[in-house]
């Protein structure tokens, strides 16, 4: 990508899309209770940027599909709902799929299931994504197909030892076509990560010490996420530590533990939609 | 067996560019060195990181590769169990997990290195198949099967070194999913899998010396177990003996007993397994097996 194109990053379009994704997720909360709204909202800009701005389109113009060069693996499986909305946007999943979510006649559940359209790996148990993404990236590199593997982890997930095993191995193998994002919303299920694991910080320096290129960005600034990847040196795996807010965009949800999983009631729903509509 | 495995996999990898091997701190020696030298990109040593060994194999398989995960048996399944279950089983990926030195082959290294529950653990996972060839020749067949199959994950339970060959003159050929008669008799049938076959063969010889006509069967595919084959063995002999270096729960013995009940088998049925106890004594593999009731004299005492 040239500097001119990079400068042409369409901030307004990304904002519009992310508003739409959040509102559609809120719509779903009104007929399904099993949704991780908070974690989906903290990952919204990251996942949107990956699908719309980072993954290269395949021959049919879609970044998802057998012939598309790059791969996205949602390591934080509980953030699945934002991935679902992107796949609907890209025409991989349909409204019919959404209507079947978590029902006996549907194929979509709370976490990504390999085999479903657009889903590259089954996740939901944390700490599996980095190992699988490493294997995928290594295959792409050694088979000369050279696709880039993008993955999004939660900050809580980085407590898993398996994540660090694979992190160490990725840099040792020189897998430069691996780009990992931490959706660093400082929360894990019901507690704050800064309280449970103050030694997790600073994050960027840890990854650098593990042989990665690592940068930190505002995880709700789509252009900053995009630029972090565009400006990488490219000879090491890249970690983008995205500072985010759980439940981002809805005042009463932001950084409030119960919105890890809860669905808003009808009044709360209306307020949430209003806040998202009125935001800049 | 490990050298035969390495040799066979090296040959398969030279034919099939999809084959990768991910090892956890196994130093390449002998034929494995040939693999690493000739296919350096497809030999990966993740070191002491078994979760990454399995996760990486899953990622490779998701990209169309045919990966093998390889280390000492106990570390292939127990440490990375959830990766085996979720990444390989749930996603049904064609990855072969090679458990080397299974059973109590690492007899002096203590209980941390004994692999006594692997068949039960692996068999409990949906989609997982379990293969345990009884000698180096059968291992070649099993490895070749694993190197080309695309159906899903396999746990391949193998020995270590110095195992004799029993199947050179076997009555049946190796076929995945079928029990294999090494020799066919009419009175007694001995069922075994893996390296414990050495004991089964000795017991057969002793029983033959006493005038019995003895079948010896390699039940190399423990999952899916050849149910019609087991039923025929139960119905076709007066006495059936199962020998395995595995705990009583979830191994071949418990499956054969289950089938025997289902078909109301009339034969006498004797099973010899490790006890449901960890082993705290040391010595040779034979010493440890004998401590749990698996030796030729102890078996003969029960069955003759």
TrEMBL record, chain A:
Keywords noted in UniProt: Thiamine pyrophosphate, Transferase
CDD domains, alphabetized: TPP_TK
Named cofactor requirement(s): thiamine diphosphate
Documented EC number(s): 2.2.1.1
GO molecular function (one): transketolase activity
InterPro entries given in the database record: THDP-binding, Transketolase_N
Residue ranges constituting the Transketolase N-terminal domain according to the UniProt record: 22-251
Entry's family note: Belongs to the transketolase family.
Name this protein carries in UniProt: Transketolase, N-terminal section
UniProtKB/TrEMBL annotation, chain B:
Keyword terms, alphabetized: Thiamine pyrophosphate, Transferase
InterPro entries: PDH/Transketolase, THDP-binding, Transketo_C/PFOR_II, Transketolase-like_Pyr-bd, Transketolase_C
Coiled coil regions, renumbered to chain: none
Enzyme Commission designation: 2.2.1.1
Cofactor(s) listed: thiamine diphosphate
Molecular-function GO term, any one: transketolase activity
Domain of life per record: Bacteria
Database matches in PANTHER family: HYPOTHETICAL TRANSKETOLASE FAMILY PROTEIN (PTHR43825:SF5), PYRUVATE DEHYDROGENASE E1 COMPONENT (PTHR43825)
The family this protein is said to belong to: Belongs to the transketolase family.
Protein name: Transketolase, C-terminal section
Species for this entry: Candidatus Phaeomarinibacter ectocarpi
